[in-house]
């Protein structure tokens, strides 16, 4: 049995100014995405040049932060927002939804694709391989905060999270998600997108893999206490939101390759 390290959530404190590790993980994700995006922009089939990658990052950052926060409020914790509307602005306390962030990013991609004339799908296929780095960084932020822990377990790597309402060893589900949503998903998408693919195929693979990975890890992740299980004593909100993603991704891949052979 392991013990959670109990990191100080504040990475740097200068007088009243506090910089949290959670915020730094987001900053790292954006910086890594910018660097990887510039590498991808040098490919002959890239819809963007290096200078445009920085502009794109601005739209993505807005989509992630605004969509992620509003999505968390809408999908997971609307009651807290009603009780304390200013809680919406305290993003350093945690509380971001990937699915809300995805909707925000999609809106940003649509606007940027329209602005540049490249269209939504070309920009989406360009961005998809960059996203897992940010996802993985966010899961490390969750682990540092000691939040979103897993279900009780007797495996040797089970971990006690002092923030949990008991002293039970639990799955370190944040690290599982870091491995699947961050490392594995990045490796798959970076390899797949290393040469030209049919339009929508890269985006479809991202949706299919993320949806499947998230659906599986939800089986060992403790559901949000304010929601619990939605049905069958195992179905979580994360699974309800992720299954349509996986299905939509598979459909996009099929359409992409059917168009290519038509």
UniProtKB/TrEMBL annotation:
Membrane topology of the entry: Multi-pass membrane protein
**Keywords annotated in UniProt:** Cell membrane, Lipoprotein, Membrane, Transferase, Transmembrane, Transmembrane helix
* Regions that span the bilayer: 19-36, 56-76, 96-113, 120-140, 175-193, 200-217, 237-257
Report the EC code(s) recorded for this entry.
2.5.1.145
Which cellular component appears as one GO term in the record? plasma membrane
Q: What pathway annotation does it carry?
A: Protein modification; lipoprotein biosynthesis (diacylglyceryl transfer)
The family this protein is said to belong to:
Belongs to the Lgt family.
| Function according to Swiss-Prot or TrEMBL | Catalyzes the transfer of the diacylglyceryl group from phosphatidylglycerol to the sulfhydryl group of the N-terminal cysteine of a prolipoprotein, the first step in the formation of mature lipoproteins.
What's the name of the protein?
A: Phosphatidylglycerol--prolipoprotein diacylglyceryl transferase
């Amino acid at each position: 049995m392991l013990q959670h390290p109990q990191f100080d959530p504040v990475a740097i404190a200068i007088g009243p100014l506090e910089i949290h590790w959670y915020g730094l993980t987001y900053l790292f994700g954006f910086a890594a995405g910018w660097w990887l995006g510039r590498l991808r922009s040098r490919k002959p089939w890239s819809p963007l040049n290096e200078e445009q990658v920085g502009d794109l990052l601005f739209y993505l950052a807005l989509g992630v932060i605004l969509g992620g926060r509003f999505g968390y409020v809408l999908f997971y914790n609307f009651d807290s927002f009603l009780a304390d509307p200013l809680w919406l602005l305290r993003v350093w306390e945690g509380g971001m939804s990937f699915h809300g962030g995805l909707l925000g990013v999609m809106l940003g991609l649509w606007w940027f694709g329209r602005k540049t004339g490249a269209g939504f799908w070309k920009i989406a296929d360009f961005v998809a391989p960059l996203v897992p780095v940010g996802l993985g960084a966010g899961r490390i932020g969750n682990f540092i905060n000691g939040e979103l822990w897993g279900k009780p377990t007797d495996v040797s790597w089970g971990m006690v999270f002092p923030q949990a309402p008991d002293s039970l060893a639990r799955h370190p589900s944040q690290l599982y998600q870091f491995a699947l949503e961050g490392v594995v998903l990045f490796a798959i998408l970076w390899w797949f997108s290393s040469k030209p693919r049919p339009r929508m195929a890269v985006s479809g693979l991202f949706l299919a893999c993320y949806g499947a990975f998230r659906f599986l890890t939800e089986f060992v992740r403790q559901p949000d206490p304010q929601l619990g299980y939605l049905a069958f004593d195992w179905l979580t909100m994360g699974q309800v939101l992720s299954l349509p993603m996986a299905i939509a991704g598979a459909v996009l891949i099929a359409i992409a390759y059917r168009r290519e052979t038509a």
